[in-house]
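HUMAN: Forgive my ignorance: could you write out one protein's sequence and backbone structure tokens?

ASSISTANT:
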Amino acid sequence: MTEKRSDYRKKLKHKKSKNFLNTIKSAFDDSDEEVDVNPDFTRDDDEVVQANDFKNARVKKREQVSRREEEKSQSQLTTSQEKALKLKGKLNRAIIIVSILIILVLLALFHL
């Protein structure tokens, strides 16, 4: 007798849930077991040193790029801060001029 589709789906669902739980358990497992995929493969010390040098060079390049970006952002901040200060000064002057003009208009209306 063949199994029903619903039974087959239940089995698959049960397997998926177990598999999901196993992956979660393995994520929190603290055992540091190293898996050696190909035990015949070994690296020479020169290859390891070259790989480390290459990684160090990449890290240095990333640091230089991040420094350049920081310097650009700081220079942009200083230019934006300078622009903000200029705008504040212009706004203050405009407010003072408008308030003086309003006072002059009120004086002219009440005295004439």
DSSP finds two helices and no strands in the chain. The chain has a mean pLDDT of 78. The helical segments are 5-27, 45-111.
